[in-house]
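From the shared-data thread, chain only:
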Amino acid sequence: MKNICLYFQVHQPYRLATYRFFDIGDHDRYFDDHANRFIMQQVAEKCYLPANDVLLSLIDRYGDDFKVAFSISGMALEQFKAYAPKVIESFQKLASTGAIEFLAETWAHSLASLKSKKEFEAQVSLHKQAIWELFGQKTVTFRNTELIYSNDIAKMVFDQGYKTMLTEGAKHILGWRSPNKLYASAKVPGLRLLLKNFRLSDDIAFRFSNRDWNEWPLTAEKFVSWFQQAAPGDEVINLFMDYETFGEHQWKETGIFDFLEAFPALAIEQAGMRFKTPGMLAEELKPETELDVPYPISWADEERDLTAWLGNELQDEAFEKLYQLEKDVYHTGDEKLLRTWRLLQTSDHFYYMCTKWFSDGDVHKYFNPYNSPYDAFIHYMNVLSDFTIRVKIPSPAR
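Structure, as tokens:
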């Protein structure tokens, strides 16, 4: 084992304001600007700025031996510019080192790949342009929202010009095979696949501060020793997680920033490992075999499927009604309506409606601003009802 791929997802949704039934037809102030500003500025101070400082120090210290990959949703980039411009500057400073690969994704962090090829391609193009304008980098690797992947999605991604994609190392797909190798798509063999090692990734993202975990506390020495226990034929450990893990989900007081600085140092200095980007690994490694994924997988929950977003009648109804508006929204030619429709596509809105309260219940409750999934559904559908009226009834200007 010589390689580590360290990848972080950066995302913040535009959260909905309280929108009651009696607001329908009255106004279109759907989003809570105050909450979005407050949360973005808070997470910037707790996570993005200090974590970027740690990564910059590691790059300065280890040069070509330390590389990192990011995907940053379009709406996160927008909120950085509006509410926390220092974060943009911080990422640009990282980009200038040449040690960062920015990945492509859907601009609105949406589930469009499951419903609309046209909208999916449009959002990928928007995101690609945003990365170029802010960081001067052409995206060569794709990361779909929530690592959602299937054979059909592989074809769409490959047709967009991407030759490498990240997804989940789901047990029911891999079987006896290891996630610590490069794979290829069975649908389009030219598409290379890097799979998340969910056990090691989640040790950081979800278990790091859990005192009931039998491996707590997780030290850098212990973590790197697990790398060295990998099978002789394994080629890369893919550590994929939300960037908000550092300082927001796992608070500074847990020692998470010290860990972020320490484990790469030990991996490089003592284990002789190198951190590489997905683009580098796709060029250097040969695929072990092809993976056939006929039904979508994701990185969420024990099932690693779509049920975190599309697992009950509430979610399915909201999702169907949203995408039923696609032709009408495009037909209006109204950029404001198109943008609002995309903001309503963000996967978070459907995640809040999840009714799974068993093995993954604590995770869903932690990230959910509503008292219940039903409250999330009612707020969303009130907004969608008003939005539908505005799409269906042309304004005098049209």
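The mean pLDDT is 94.
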